[in-house]
Amino acid sequence: MSNVLEITKDNFQTEVLGSTIPVLVDFAAEWCGPCKRLAPIIEELAKEFSDSVKVAHVDIDSYPDIATKYSVMSVPTLILYKNGAPVNKSIGLISKSDLIDFIKSNS
């Protein structure tokens, strides 16, 4: 069972914007090669940071309105939300160590 929360238009407000802890959202697509390479790293971090950061996934093809609202122009894009607002964005494939630094420096 995945530790990564699947985000939809119905739960984005509650799970991301209403979260009391920081939320790392992975905006990705099924057809995206770099997204597929990033997915296992995202899963590992969801386990490692389960007490302090919520990790979530948005399929941009299923929910393009969410991607558009947050100016996601390419995938993978990672956005870290804190107190209901985006605080930082990473575009493209990123290493696990760089992603850990990204989370720690912004959460």
Short key terms for the protein model shown above:
107 residues; Glutaredoxin; alpha/beta
**What is the end-to-end distance?**
25 Å
- Total discrete domains: 1
Named CATH architecture: 3-Layer(aba) Sandwich
Low-confidence parts, pLDDT < 50 over ≥5 residues? Answer: none
State mean pLDDT (0 to 100 scale).
Answer: 95
Percent of residues in beta strands: 25-35%
What fold name stands as the CATH topology? Glutaredoxin
Main sheet specs: 5 strands, mixed
Outline type:
globular
CATH class: Alpha Beta
Main β-sheet, spatial strand arrangement: 1-3-2-4-5
Give Rg in angstroms: 12 Å
Question: How many DSSP H or I helices?
Answer: 4
List the helices and strands in order. Answer: EHEHEHEEH
CATH superfamily: Glutaredoxin
Look at the helices and sheets and give the structural class: alpha/beta
DSSP, total strands? 5
Helix content percent band = 25-40%
